[in-house]
Structure formats: structure tokens, C-alpha cells
Amino acid sequence: MRFRWLLLLPSFLSVFLFSAAVQAGDLSFWRFDTNQNRLSFSTRGGGVQPKAQLISDPARVVIDLPGTTLAGPTANQRLRGGIKEIRVGQVDDRTTRIVVELEPGYTLDPKQVKFRGITASQWTVDFPRPQRIGSSPSAPPPRRPPQEESTNFRYFQSLGAKSTQPTLTADVSQLATIESVELTNNQTQLLIRADLAVRATSTWDAIAKAYRITIPGARLADRIRGPQLSASSPVARILLRQQDFRTVVILVQPATGTQIGELNQLTDQLLALQLQQTRPLTPSVATIPVPPPERPGSVLPPTRPTSPVPLPGVRNTRVVVMVDPGHGGSDPGAIGRGGIRETDIVLSIGQQVAALLQQQGIQVFMTRNGDYDVGLGSRVVMAERVNADLFVSIHANAIDLSRSDINGLETYYYSSDRALRLAQTIHVSILQSLDIQNRGIRTARFFVLRKTSMPSVLVEVGFVTGGEDSVKLSNSTYRSQMARAIARGILQYIQQYT
């Protein structure tokens, strides 16, 4: 079966159909820390000046990142404590949008939302605790479909299906063609227009949380026209599907404040779905000021850590973590400035990471706990044998000694979304804790990342050949700070994703 996709977002066609003329930066990672009520995000390939608003019905903070595209798939993170969820998506071909939606009955003071641009590509947003403003909205009246909260990524989508099976071939001249779906009459009607007579049945689809309209004896036009949906539209989403070779299904998801009325047959070729407003369509909007970044570059400025941030507690102490200090024994790894050895640095950090995790009740194993040889295959076997839930490999980077200017943190994963989340969480934790340059999160085909079945990452804690990093990594206090930052990232991942 082949699907046709048409994706219309407010005033633009999807980049699936048209590519942007200007190369944009990527939103390379983001994370919400529930302990601090802090959103962190970073772009790659260019800086950004965010724009932010607090919008009502439902209450949500909308953060737009102009000139930015989403490096990965759209994502949702469910939360609690007055914040319902975080959604990240592409609102148009040059703007990534982050939506922080509050639970029903909660709001917050937009003046207390504090943006900080550490650099033009590294941002944090501190949120105040949401405040309850009243009871949750009441259920819709009887015999009406329940209201569905707006996603704010509103779109019209057409999925046409054709089959190569001869038994499913039909004379399309006998089928009505659905030509357009339009919002009319001051957005109180959704008109479905065909070129021949049509009849339809309709019902509320509790699974899809949308109103289902089924039209037999019909097909979708090759270039069907759909409405341009915006934040004030009464409809959050319209999905059209060619259910089989002679049946069209239309799913209509109402926005907050909209109830579905009757489906009327205006003419033989025209259906009208009534849309009833239970509250004003136009939500209240408050602009949230965003100051310019403190530094325009992509390198983090020096930080001055005071007392260590407490490690987060976790409820799921059944998680098993394998800590993998790289190299060892006859393989010292990279040799850096002043003769410092990668094997010694990563063993010191790895042992401290393991101890910190164990203090929080996590079961930890190490691939090596001394200066001895362990093959790559053996490291994978150990992780699989203990049924590890997470695998964290610790290494130090190196380049030619003449390149003392190359310094910074790199974190690698192979392919899975869970591994990416783990890499993001650890990477951000380190950047927030230490004075180290950000060289980004990357994919790599390292053996221990490809061959392990659990979420696995490899952290390059700095360059032993770097003029800055080599001095820091030689310092035991700095290594302890690095270990604590890695452990905090692991615990935050366990807290949020397991």
C-alpha cells in the first residue's frame, strides 16, 4: 500500500514537499529538569534568539526558535506538578516550536519565566511553579463528543492509498471525488465538497479522540484542498484517509473550546459539519521577554561552581547500570600533555560515577575496576550477562599534540531514541556543571554502542592533548566534578525515562 501525504501547517507547506532555501541551525537536544523546573536546549550549526508567549486555553508557554529545524523526530515528554507535558515539533520549515503545556486549572506568571542565553546556541529557561486557578473544566454536555485539548501543532493531513492488487481495481469514474475540506461561515462549519453525490455516516472515535466521518463510494482527489489551521482555529487536526479503494474516512479533532455538532447534507455533493464554540476562539496572549545571549559564540563561558548540586533521588532503584572505563592494562589509550594517560583518567572518573550511583541505591557494575585488559567483546558480554539497563562508556579524546586549541566535551550514541535521550541528559548535566567547551552530541559506530542491546552512550570527557582540558583532567577535584555531573545525568535519565 502506498500513502500520499499532504501536510499543511499555518501558512506554509511542509519541508517534506519543499526544502528551505537557507541552511538553518538544528535543535540538537533539549531536556526538562523537573527538580529545578528548568528547560535546557541547544542548537547546532547556528545560534538562535528565541521568542516566547504565554497563551491561554489551555495555558501553555510557546517558545519559537526562528531559523531552526528539528534534528530528530517530534517528541513529547509527560510531566507532573502542574505541568502536563513538553512538546517539540516543527511549526514551519524555518521554525522549531517547544510547547510547555500546563495541567488544566493551572497558570503561571509570565514575568517569572526567565530565559538565559549562556551562548547563542545554549539556552536555559527557568519556570515558576504553576499556580492553581480553579477546578478543571467541566465535562462537555451529554451526547457531545468530549473536548480534546489543542496540540498547537495544527494540521490538515491527507493519506491516500492505492493498491496494485488487480482484485481491488475499481472504475474511478463511478466514485465520487472528495475535492476539498473548508472552514466557512466564520469558522462554524466544516464543508466537505465532492464532485458527485455522496452520503456519509459519522460517530465519535474515542480511541482517536476525534469525530469520524465515513464516506463510502468515494476517493480522495490527488491534490485535495484543505484549510489553513492556526492557533485560533476551532479544529486542531483534520486527517483524511483512503480507508480502502472505495471508502474515505475523515477524522476531525476539535480544539479546546469547540464541540462537534451535527453532520448535515446541504446538497448531494456537499456535507457540513457544525462546530459549536463554548468559549472565545481567540486565546489571551502574553509576550515573555527573552534577553539576548550573554555570549554570541557556541563555547560556554567559564562557570564558577559553588556547593555541589545534590544528586536527584530515584524511585526505580531496580535499574542496573554498567559503567565502562575505556582501555586499561596494556592499552593505556591516548597519551596527553605531561604524559597523562587516558586509562588513568577514565578509571578515576568511572569509579567515582559508580560510587555515586550506588549511594543513590542504583545497582552498578563496572567492566573494569583496575588497570587491566578488557576486550571490547568482553565489555559487551558483561553488560548483557548482568542484564544492564544502561551502558555508559567513559573515554578521553586526543588529537595531535600540536593542536592544543582543540578542547571540549563530546557524547556519542549509535541509533536508538532512548540512547539519544541518555546522551542528551548526561551531556547537558556536564555542560551545566563544568567549564568545558561543547562539541556536541554525535552518532558513531563504536563497537560497544552497536553491540549492546540496552541504551548505550560513550562520553569523551575532554582532550588529553588540549591546552585547557589536559590541565583540568589532571586535577582530581575536576575529575570528581566530572564524575558527579555524569552520575547526575544518569540519575536524571532514570528519574524521567524509566
What does this structure look like?
This protein is an alpha+beta fold and 498 residues long. It folds into 3 domains: 13-134, Immunoglobulin-like (Sandwich); 141-277, Immunoglobulin-like; 320-497, 3-Layer(aba) Sandwich (Aminopeptidase). The chain contains 6 helices and 31 strands. Mean pLDDT is 82; it is low at 1-24, 134-155, 160-169 and 298-306.
Which key features would you list for this structure?
alpha+beta; Aminopeptidase; Immunoglobulin-like; 3 domains; 6-stranded antiparallel sheet; 6 helices; 40% strand
How is the topology of this model organized?
Elements: E1 2-9, E2 12-13, E3 25-33, E4 38-44, E5 51-55, E6 60-66, E7 68-70, E8 75-78, E9 83-92, E10 95-102, E11 106-107, E12 114-119, E13 122-126, E14 131-132, E15 155-162, E16 176-184, E17 189-194, E18 201-205, E19 210-216, E20 218-225, E21 235-244, E22 247-254, E23 258-267, E24 270-277, E25 285-288, E26 320-325, H1 342-359, E27 363-366, H2 376-385, E28 390-397, E29 409-413, H3 417-433, E30 438-443, H4 447-451, E31 456-463, H5 469-473, H6 476-497
Parallel strand pairs: 3-7, 15-21, 16-20, 26-27, 26-28, 28-31, 29-30
Antiparallel strand pairs: 1-2, 1-15, 3-4, 4-13, 5-6, 5-25, 6-10, 8-9, 9-10, 11-14, 12-13, 16-17, 17-24, 18-19, 19-22, 21-22, 23-24, 29-31
